[in-house]
Amino acid sequence: MSSPAPELLPEGGFTRIRCELSYDGSYFSGWNLQPDRRTVQSVVEDLLSRLMAIPVNTMVAGRTDAGVHATGQVFHFDIAQVDRDRWNLTSLMQIANRLLPDEVRLNSLDDAPHGFHARYSALRRNYRYRFADGFKVIPPLARADVAPWQQNLDIDLMNEAVVPLIGTHDFAAFCRKREGATSIRSLEKFEWSRDSDGFAQALVSADAFCHAMVRSLVGAASIVGAGHAEIGWLGELLNGGDRVGRSLSAPARGLTLIGVDYPTGAGLLERAQVLTRTGVRSLPSE
User: Fold this and answer.
1) 225 CB contacts (<8 Å, ≥6 apart)?
2) Is the pLDDT of residue 284 over 70?
3) pLDDT tens digits for 200-239?
4) Same domain, 146 and 223
5) Which of 274, 161, 146 is nearest to 221 (CA)?
6) Residues in domain Pseudouridine synthase I TruA alpha/beta (predicted)?
7) Hey, which residues are catalytic here?
8) What is the arithmetic mean of pLDDT over 253-280?
């Protein structure tokens, strides 16, 4: 029996609010609500619900794991128009930021354009990963979002090794298996460079990511970059389908969701309708 189609638009008499936020994931057990765990979703929903004196239920663009950060996370929530009319959104954001814990901040709070859906309208999610390789010193103020790596990483070698991963593939080898979930994704970007601090930096973008996928991709690439695997190893993993061991998954602390891209205008609803209508992703025909 198939699941009912998700609601893409607010119900009658309701309006949608779009929010962008940042958080230090070191203090949270991920985004999603979990029993007896401190999560970003629980902190944000609890604060907004108490502040606005109404139940607030959020829909997020990307469900980050425990320890993963964000500078450009996006979510929405729907409220009755009568409740929306009570608030100036600039004032609401300012009050919320005064009351939220220091590790969470709302970057923007606006009326959502017609057709906007934080999850289903998204074109791609963009992540950054940073390694302090070769025993580089991590400054105390950078310790939250940079992971240590003892050996020197060869940037050119890693960029060559990740080429076979670009495109639409079944990334089962790089995802933690979830019952009923597909591991087919379209990886649009996976580029390594040195940032201004000399850290090894990966920029990774895809239409969506399955559970632990970015950290597995980064961890496997770093094995090649350190000279412990041949340049074709990532392609072999992709085609073989055997799950990359959890020991090869890069630490959560180095990973940050830096942004979510959306279409404009009528493209918002069109994108959401396409994703929810097609349902299961499929590989391109040969």
Assistant:
1) 153, 154, 155, 157, 158, 161, 192, 200
2) no
3) 999 999 999 998 899 999 999 999 999 999 999 999 999 9
4) yes
5) 161
6) 22-120, 161-263
7) 65
8) 92
For residue 121, give Cα distances in angstroms to 45, 180, 198, 231: 22, 22, 35, 36
Query: Residue written as tokens 């961890």?
Result: 219
Q: What is the pTM of this model?
A: 0.94
Structure tokens at 127: 């992540």
Structure tokens at 188: 């649009």
Q: How many structural domains is the chain composed of?
A: 2
Q: How many CB atoms lie within 10 A of CB 57?
A: 12
What's at 174, amino acid-wise? F
Q: Which residue has the tokens 């939250």?
A: 144
Pair of tokens at residue 22: 């940042």
245 Cβ partners below 8 Å, 6+ apart? none
Partnered with residue 125 across adjacent β-strands are 206, 260
Strands 200-206 and 124-133: antiparallel
- C-alpha distances (whole Å) from 84 to each of 116, 160, 189, 283 are 17, 51, 39, 43
| Contact (CB, 8 A) for 122 and 188 | no
Q: What are the pLDDT digits (tens) for 241-255?
A: 667 776 689 999 999
CB neighbour class for 170 (10 Å; exposed up to 12, middle 13-18, buried from 19): middle
Tokens matching residue 46? 């609890």
Same domain, 148 and 229: yes
How far, in Å, are 81, 83, 85, 196 from residue 14 at the CA level? 5, 9, 11, 46
The string over 72-91, giving b where at least 16 C-beta atoms fall within 10 Å of a residue's C-beta and e elsewhere, is bbbbbbbbeeeebeebeeee
Residue 40: pLDDT over 60: yes
Asked if 263 and 190 touch (Cβ cutoff 8 Å), the reply is no
Residue 279 tokens read as 């349902």
Q: Are residues 91 and 172 in the same domain?
A: no
Nearest CA among 169, 10, 147 for reference residue 69: 147
Supply the CATH number for residue 189's domain: 3.30.70.660
